[in-house]
Amino acid sequence: MSLDLPATLSGASGCRTAPVLKERGQREVFCGLTGIIWLHRKMQDAFFLVVGSRTCAHLLQAAAGVMIFAEPRFGTAILEEKDLAGLADANAELDREVARLLSRRPDIKQLFLVGSCPSEVIKLDLARAAERLSGLHAPHVRVYNYSGSGIETTFTQGEDACLAAMVPTLAGTTARELLVVGALPDVVEDQCLALLAALGIGPVRMLPARRSADLPAVGANTVFALVQPFLGDTHAALTRRGARHLAAPFPFGEQGTTAWLRAIATEFGISDDVFDRVTAAPRARALKAIAAQSVELQGKSVFFFPDSQLEIPLARFLARECGMTPIEVGTPYLHDALHGPDLDLLPSGPTISEGQDVEKQLDRQRAARPDLTICGLGLANPLEAQGFTTKWAIELVFTPVHFYEQAGDLAGLFSRPLRRKALLQAGAQA
Amino acid sequence: MKLTLWTYEGPPHVGAMRVATGMKGLHYVLHAPQGDTYADLLFTMIERRNHRPPVTYTTFQARDLGGDTANLFKDAARDAYARFQPEAMIVGASCTAELIQDDPGGLTEALGLPIPVIPLDLPSYQRKENFGADETFHQIVRHLAKPMPRTEAISCNILGATALGFRHRDDVAEVTRLLALMGISVNVAAPLNARPSDIARMGQAHFNVLLYPETGEGAARQLERTCGQPWTKIVPIGVGATRDFLHEVAAITGLSAAVDESALRLPWWSASVDSTYLTGKRVFIFGDATHAIAAARIAATEIGFTVVGMGCFNREFARPMRAAAKAHGVEALITDDYLEVEAEIERLQPELILGTQMERHIGKRLGIPCAVISSPVHVQDFPARYSPQMGFEGANVIFDTWIHPLVMGLEEHLLTMFREDFEFHDAAGASHHGAKAVARAEPVEAGVLHHRTPAEYLDKDEAAAVAVAVLGAPVWADAAERELKKIPFFVRGKAKRNTEKYAADRGVTEISVDTLYEAKAHYAR
């Protein structure tokens, strides 16, 4: 395989100007509270306290699976009848529970009060509570607030809301620095930093940081690159602080990673020679791994139900690097400044849909009979039982999939269900 | 407010979902915000259902709160009827919709649908999942079941089995078989697999068998009031309880309780000499009250354990639980806070825990064997094979399940004999649990004994790796060593071996980060 760069933005063949099918109706998605599951692993001295109902606690339990038993740093302050009757004492109740929690976990330096549907509906002012509690527990603990409620956020937007809440509190700086934004698995974050260091770009700051002491500063000379496509509010908050966004496709697959790195390299005036020398070996590895893992994907069609906003960059990866044909690419939310560069590279053809009416979308999926359907766990087994091959989408958020060394694994996540179907059919005929 | 991490029960609308999903031809329209559809996963994943739960969620968002949420609900109910054509519908609100005070019952009534529409009032901030299931089934029965002439032959209804119930599928089959041995046919088993039209003919049974008081007692009392049907009070879990249940049914029907017990093996298995070592083993029991009380009786009188503690998470059944605990000479633990359960287990240091998924993890943490006897449970406790808890086959299943986590009798004897042996010692654990014996000299990492070794950890490259070690293994550069440590522990060993083999094959003497990833790419297939 050659190492030629992908064709740069060529609007003619892309999906950026394609009409978007906007739908409203019943949605089969997670709420933003689920972001806590990976955020609490990333931020090692943070605790996430949801103020909500038994439903919220039950959701986190269902989503966290066995993690719930590893002494996780999250919990739910469950609202009771008496909290609903008089709001004045909801604040006193919250203060008491927080004090008890912080005395039990003295290692906590950041506390997030996470709003939920019930707390938003009864207009419980968690922002003010966070300010009050910050005062009470300063300087040891900083208390933030964001909402992960289903009425306001979908799945990965919970991370967006969390990071956006932190941005106004970050220290100011005039240094010209690169800020990489979005929670990544540690091993992937290290690969990202190693690549940037090899290119001669530094210092590089991360948001979120692993510990509160490492939080980045931000100012008019900060440029930032996003590693996740669902960070619209964080993008806006950083822009308000004077930072400038480096628009780029997201670092999925060899092409995505190369284009992402190139946008940064260009900004920092890195020569093509240096760029090629640093990226040649990992690019070759990525291409080799993708080739091995994507054999089953060539020429197959794929249908995305909306889930995490990763759908558009992933469809771009599957179409351009694995030879798949997207039929419909559903996303819970479309953000032109974030998704644009990937839409440019996504070959025209698929329906781009935003929002959901799940019954109508299932009708479309049934009619299209895709070879592979990317969907949530509430739909996967029912669709499998109807003879469709599915890949459950949530894994794409929890698994290391970014950058060169994970490109083969990423293709493998999609090819495994097809390979398995073939194996089982072969077994059935034997 | 109450700080909660793990909850034994979901909110009451999840109980209503368990009834709706268990039934056929019934649809649930639930006024709920976007995100509440997470509960679908419990059914499609944990229970492995091959269809979506028959639930339409309104999934309102913030922008809908301006006042058209009532219309949203009406549209959702109308669309659900048009699309699914159910025989009956249940309607209600989740915790958030309870706060916005639309009236699902009134709104649906205004639509004038040509089917029964049953409104549910489930107080989310006071009650929990089991109440939700019990109340929903109760309301369905109240709306649909009518007094009818009895069937000619003696028949009964079986009450309480739901979707996501612990072993409900096979319990219903086993109890149906038991009743058939007595000459009794089943009129309707509900909610599981029943249709609203089946509920309407429940009145023709002679009596009701209540399998699960937690989810069926409301309906049993309702049917007693309206259809004059007596209901059974004994739950047939364990040999003794099953025989008592048969006598109870005999008293209701006038039939003989003498049935064929030739497939019952627990009594002999328990009497055989290999089971002698079980005598007096200290057991702690926790779960829903019905399963915990039944388990205590089996433990004490059918296997010969000593019950050192017992309790339940559902306060509704605190009274019978306290009485049962007293009979075993212990104080009942009534709590829905798993930290209290953990503290009690830590204090008592039992040799076996019988509990829920949560106690399984507590056991893992404390290094105490555990078997699961009650919801909430995870995917492995919705097994493919036939595995009831009730009746005679249930007793066989229970014996195997509880004994399996313990070291087998002879093995325990040998371990005791060679207690100080450096390789063959107690900390090595049960041989059939895949725990790797660790030589005494080495410190044992906490919890390692109870982690299964993933199969991929041991592969045919083992021999190759050993060969490499002998021939002088390549040296790891510091950066590569650090990179290796970032790989999850359960595949790290394999990655290390593969990389070393890859390096050795190519004559590489120092392994760099690049070598590690070259090898990863090489072995990617």
From TrEMBL, chain A:
| Substrates-to-products reaction catalysed | chlorophyllide a + oxidized 2[4Fe-4S]-[ferredoxin] + 2 ADP + 2 phosphate = protochlorophyllide a + reduced 2[4Fe-4S]-[ferredoxin] + 2 ATP + 2 H2O
Residues the record lists as binding [4Fe-4S] cluster: C31, C56, C117
- GO aspect biological process, one term: photosynthesis, dark reaction
Q: Which cofactor does it need?
A: [4Fe-4S] cluster
Q: What is its EC number?
A: 1.3.7.7
Q: Keywords, A to Z?
A: 4Fe-4S, ATP-binding, Bacteriochlorophyll biosynthesis, Chlorophyll biosynthesis, Iron, Iron-sulfur, Metal-binding, Nucleotide-binding, Oxidoreductase, Photosynthesis
One example GO MF annotation: oxidoreductase activity, acting on the CH-CH group of donors, iron-sulfur protein as acceptor
Quaternary structure and interacting proteins, as annotated = Protochlorophyllide reductase is composed of three subunits; BchL, BchN and BchB. Forms a heterotetramer of two BchB and two BchN subunits.
Designated name of the protein: Light-independent protochlorophyllide reductase subunit N
Source species taxonomy: Bacteria, Pseudomonadati, Pseudomonadota, Alphaproteobacteria, Rhodobacterales
From TrEMBL, chain B:
Q: Which InterPro entries match?
A: ChlB/BchB/BchZ, LI-POR_suB-like_C, Nase/OxRdtase_comp1, P-CP_red_C, Protochl_reductB, Protochlorophyllide_Rdtase
Under SUPFAM superfamilies, the record lists: Helical backbone' metal receptor (SSF53807)
User: Which GO BP terms sit in this record?
Assistant: light-independent bacteriochlorophyll biosynthetic process; photosynthesis, dark reaction
Protein name per its UniProtKB record: Light-independent protochlorophyllide reductase subunit B
Note the Pfam families from the entry.
Oxidored_nitro, PCP_red
Organism of this sequence? Paragemmobacter straminiformis
Q: How does it assemble?
A: Protochlorophyllide reductase is composed of three subunits; BchL, BchN and BchB. Forms a heterotetramer of two BchB and two BchN subunits.
Q: Per the record's keyword annotation, is Iron-sulfur included, yes or no? A: yes
Q: What is its EC number?
A: 1.3.7.7
Q: Which family does it belong to?
A: Belongs to the ChlB/BchB/BchZ family.
